[in-house]
């Protein structure tokens, strides 16, 4: 039974839980972490680690997408971002970061909006897709629900493997100024698998699964200091509960269809390997990460992070967050400048950080081993406790 509380006369609300509110409870024999598999398959594409990138220009350049693909994950390029609008993205990001480093955060957001006001150039996005495809890794691009119908044909022609239809909160049918986007019809007409989100409840997750989506994103990339959707819209997604609800929808849809499995991808409040393990334990098949990967030297944001929603032309829902001091690799004599760790080190270590911001994959692998589970789907059955 759902835990309902009265918040006033005649008004009740459901009690929900964040990832920090729950803990994994090992109850089986332990095993060697070498006996743990982190592989998963989304439609026809297999990945060796359950990590997907949040589609923001702060994190994903074609180079970053290639490197993450090489390491076993999936990089998602923002198809409506800077790589589709400017030929000199690195220079534009340098200007943006300079504003942030001066503490001029409102000016930085305004400049980001200005950059996104430039017209989309299909040739630039096609070139970015071609660069990732030439490296032999899976190519994925994000579009918004509002623009999915307009941009997708060009992306398919450019050679994408996976399409991500992604917004703060989306539904199976988006009603706009023109013809509504019916995701069921839209997906049925495509030759590439679609991942859609974000959602925060069982009903919406189930509706999206019924559209034929290969995966459903839970959450909207929330992270303290970077995402301001709660402040701007009053919307919050308690990730532990949201993931568990989406996992229940996945189970219901599996029974409803007689065996069609839709992957649940958690997008929000994951900062450490412990959070990653809890997200999987709550029922996620993979995690969409932003801030934890932005510290990597390959990330174009130069140690700064902003979500894709920060560039909204009229209602921005994010700011620039400096993340380079969360996990730094010091090499050299005293007084020399600290350098950011490589993406490979962020994912696989070695780590000298006792709080879980480095070796994310190693931390997840060891958590599964300590609990006695050998693969991701089995680990979704691990015991959980709620903190008082």
Extract low-pLDDT stretches. Answer: 326-337
Main sheet overview: 8 strands, parallel
CATH overall fold name: TIM Barrel
Strand content: 15-25%
**CATH architecture verdict:** Alpha-Beta Barrel
How many angstroms separate the termini? 19 Å
CATH top level assignment: Alpha Beta
Domain count:
1
Count of DSSP H/I helices: 14
Mean pLDDT: 90
Total strand segments? 18
Quaternary status of these chains?
single chain
Spatial strand sequence of the major β-sheet: 6-15-14-13-12-9-8-7
Name the overall outline: globular
Structure classification: alpha/beta
DSSP helix fraction = 25-40%
The CATH homologous superfamily is called: Aldolase class I
Radius of gyration: 20 Å
Short précis:
The chain has 388 residues and is α/β, with parallel strands linked by helices.
Q: How do the strands and helices of this protein lay out in sequence?
A:
Elements lengths: L3 E5 L2 E4 L7 E4 L14 E3 L2 E3 L3 E3 L8 H9 L5 E3 L10 H13 L3 H12 L5 H13 L5 E4 L4 H11 L3 E5 L6 E2 L6 E2 H6 L5 E6 L2 H8 L5 E8 L6 H5 L5 H19 L5 E6 L4 H10 L3 E4 L1 H4 L9 E2 L15 E2 L20 H6 L11 H12 L4 H4 L3 E4 L2
Parallel strand pairs: 6-15, 7-8, 8-9, 9-12, 12-13, 13-14, 14-15
Antiparallel strand pairs: 1-2, 3-18, 4-5, 10-11, 16-17
Helix pairs in contact: 1-4, 2-3, 7-9, 10-13
Describe the 3D structure.
The structure is a single chain. The protein is α/β, with parallel strands linked by helices and 388 residues long. It has a single domain (18-386), classed as TIM Barrel, CATH 3.20.20. Helices cover 34% and strands 18% of the residues. The chain is built from 14 helices and 18 strands. The chain has helices spanning 62-70, 89-101, 105-116, 122-134, 148-158, 183-188, 202-209, 229-233, 239-257, 273-282, 291-294, 343-348, 360-371, 376-379, and strands at 4-8, 11-14, 22-25, 40-42, 45-47, 51-53, 76-78, 140-143, 162-166, 173-174, 181-182, 194-199, 215-222, 263-268, 286-289, 304-305, 321-322, 383-386. The protein has an 8-stranded parallel β-sheet with strand order 6-15-14-13-12-9-8-7. The chain has a two-stranded antiparallel ribbon with strand order 1-2. A two-stranded antiparallel ribbon has the order 3-18. Strand 12, helix 7 (202-209) and strand 13 (215-222) form a beta-alpha-beta unit. The longest helix has 19 residues, at 239-257. The two termini are 19 Å apart. Residues 326-337 have low confidence and may be disordered.
């Amino acid at each position: 039974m759902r835990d309902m509380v009265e918040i006033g006369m005649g008004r009740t609300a459901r009690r929900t839980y964040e990832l920090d509110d729950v803990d994994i409870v090992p109850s089986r024999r332990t095993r060697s972490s070498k006996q743990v598999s982190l592989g998963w398959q989304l439609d026809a594409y297999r990945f060796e680690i359950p990590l997907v990138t949040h589609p923001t220009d702060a994190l994903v350049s074609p180079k970053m997408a290639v490197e993450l693909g090489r390491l076993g994950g999936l990089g998602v390029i923002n198809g409506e971002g800077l790589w589709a609008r400017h030929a000199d993205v690195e220079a534009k990001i340098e200007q943006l970061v300079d504003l942030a480093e001066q503490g001029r955060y409102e000016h930085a957001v305004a400049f980001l909006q200005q950059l996104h006001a430039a017209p989309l150039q299909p040739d630039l996005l096609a070139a970015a897709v071609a660069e990732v495809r030439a490296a032999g890794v899976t190519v994925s691009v994000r579009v918004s629900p509002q623009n999915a119908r307009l941009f997708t044909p060009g992306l398919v022609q450019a050679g994408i493997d996976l399409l991500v239809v992604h917004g703060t909160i989306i539904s199976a049918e988006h009603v706009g100024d023109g013809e509504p986007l019916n995701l069921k019809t839209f997906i049925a007409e495509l030759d590439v698998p679609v991942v859609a989100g974000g959602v925060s409840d069982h009903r919406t997750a189930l509706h999206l699964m019924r559209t034929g989506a290969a995966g459903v994103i839970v959450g909207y990339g929330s992270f303290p200091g970077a995402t301001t959707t709660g402040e701007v819209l009053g919307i919050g997604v308690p990730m532990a509960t949201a993931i568990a609800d989406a996992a229940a929808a996945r189970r219901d849809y599996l029974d409803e269809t007689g065996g069609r499995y839709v992957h649940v991808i958690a997008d929000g409040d994951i900062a450490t390997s412990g959070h990653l393990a809890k997200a999987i334990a709550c029922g996620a098949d993979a995690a969409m990460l932003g801030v934890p990967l932005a510290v990597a030297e390959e990330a174009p944001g130069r140690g700064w992070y902003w979500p894709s929603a920060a560039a909204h032309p009229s209602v921005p829902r994010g700011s620039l967050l400096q993340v380079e001091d969360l996990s730094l690799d010091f090499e050299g004599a005293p007084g020399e400048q600290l350098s950011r760790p490589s993406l490979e080190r962020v994912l696989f270590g070695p780590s000298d950080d006792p709080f879980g911001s480095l070796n994310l994959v190693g931390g997840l692998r060891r958590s599964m081993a300590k609990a006695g589970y050998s693969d991701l789907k089995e680990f979704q059955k691990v015991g959980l406790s709620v903190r008082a």
